[in-house]
Design brief:
The structure is a single chain. By secondary structure, this protein is mainly alpha-helical. It is built from four helices and five strands. A hairpin with a 5-residue loop joins strand 4 and strand 5. It starts with 9 loop residues before the first helix and ends with a strand.
Length: 159
């Protein structure tokens, strides 16, 4: 009935396990910090690329608008936009001159008119087809491409 007992200090027995646990926790913390740093760098890179792409798109749009404006001016065309919700037509100074509409207040380049005043310049025979084209444009969400005659204040008719 003999028994044998060994006495090993707790620090000697648990020391390697404690060191391993400490290294494991430190490694996990370092991995989390590294992952956060990499995610931050990736987000910065994505944001930088997005901003660069937006700047290029804005520059391309500006150049396109400038070219369009030059082409419209060279062709002596007028441009106008009808806001259906407000019943207001906004147009260039060339549109005002072509349609013989009253000048914009303050002499600015763009003028604003009530849609009824704008349509009143259209030749009576062309008003119906133009209204139908406008309705179709709004219903189909497409651009309006229409030709129509106008009657100027001096009675002359122009296309």
């Amino acid at each position: 009935g003999w028994s044998v007992h060994f006495g090993i200090p707790r620090e000697t027995l648990d020391g390697p396990v404690d060191r391993s646990l400490t290294l494991l926790v430190a490694g996990a913390a370092a991995s989390l910090l590294l992952a956060a740093a990499l995610a931050s760098l990736a987000m910065r890179d994505i944001d930088h690329r997005r901003r660069a792409r937006e700047e290029r798109a804005n520059l391309a749009l500006t150049l396109s608008e400038e070219r369009g404006a030059v082409a419209i001016e060279a062709a002596e065309l007028g441009t106008w936009r009808w806001t259906a919700a407000t019943g207001e037509v906004t147009g260039s100074s060339r549109t005002r001159a072509l349609l013989d509409l009253p000048p914009a207040p303050g002499g600015s380049g763009e003028g604003r008119w009530v849609a009824g005043d704008f349509l009143a310049t259209v030749h009576p025979e062309d008003r119906g087809p133009l209204r139908e084209a406008l309705r179709a444009c709004l219903a189909d969400q497409t651009r309006l491409d229409a030709e129509f005659r106008i009657v100027r204040s001096d009675g002359t008719v122009r296309w």
